[in-house]
């Protein structure tokens, strides 16, 4: 990200990013940067994470995944005693292509920016602070989404739903 920022620009980086697979990688990078920023009290890591998730939002198929990735970054800004609104706005200015997406997060209600509501919790491991995903929130979202679908679609998706529940310990 730094090389792209110094060189030919973040806009040209889009040409190198294949949809969805790379978007997921960028979201994971953003989450990792959020955790590391807290561990090292480094706002620069937070900013890298914001730009990565902003870039992912331009390539992904589902905005919900991108929105979820912003919750840990928002919380990280608070933990670093920074103004989250200012950090997100600065990232939007630096990367205008993702500006609408990043500023949309700033305009959300506090409840819809909540870390737990977005499926994460603060945790620690042997390396220190980290954000962990909360599968119970994913299950609630999956169930709500599944219930809204027409019956024929629910039948077609039933196998995938059962597999996800089994893989995540919700037998």
Describe the biggest sheet? 2 strands, antiparallel
Strand order of the largest sheet: 1-2
Q: Mean pLDDT across all residues, rounded?
A: 85
Helical stretch tally? 9
Give the distance, in angstroms, between the N- and C-terminal Cα atoms: 41 Å
- Indicate the percent of residues in helices: 55-70%
Helix/strand/pairing category: mainly alpha
Share in β-strands: 5-15%
- Count every beta strand, where a strand is a DSSP E run of 2 or more residues: 2
The helix-strand sequence is HHHHHHHEEHH
Rough shape? globular
- Low confidence ranges: none
Query: Could you say how many structural domains there are in total?
Result: 2
Q: Please, could you describe this protein's structure?
A:
This protein is mainly α. It folds into 2 domains: 132 residues, no CATH class; 38 residues, no CATH class. The chain has 9 helices and 2 strands; from the N terminus they run H-H-H-H-H-H-H-E-E-H-H. Strands 1-2 form a two-stranded antiparallel sheet. A hairpin with a 2-residue loop joins strand 1 and strand 2. The radius of gyration is 17 Å and the shape is globular. The model has no long low-confidence stretch (mean pLDDT 85).
List its traits.
two-stranded antiparallel sheet, mainly alpha, 171 residues
């Amino acid at each position: 990200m730094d090389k792209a920022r110094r060189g030919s620009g973040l806009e040209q980086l889009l040409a190198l990013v294949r949809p969805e697979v790379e978007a997921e990688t960028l979201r994971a990078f953003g989450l990792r940067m959020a955790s590391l920023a807290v561990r090292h009290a480094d706002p620069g890591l937070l900013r890298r994470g914001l730009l990565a998730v902003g870039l992912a939002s331009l390539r992904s198929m589902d905005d919900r995944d991108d929105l979820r990735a912003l919750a840990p970054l928002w919380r990280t800004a608070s933990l670093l005693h920074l103004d989250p609104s200012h950090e997100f706005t600065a990232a939007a200015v630096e990367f205008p292509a993702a500006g609408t997406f990043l500023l949309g997060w700033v305009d959300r209600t506090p409840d819809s920016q909540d870390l737990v509501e977005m499926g994460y919790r603060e945790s620690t491991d042997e390396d220190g602070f980290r954000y962990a995903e909360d599968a119970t929130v994913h299950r609630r979202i999956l169930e709500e989404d599944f219930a809204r679908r027409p019956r024929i679609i629910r039948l077609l998706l039933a196998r995938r739903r059962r597999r996800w529940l089994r893989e995540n310990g919700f037998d």
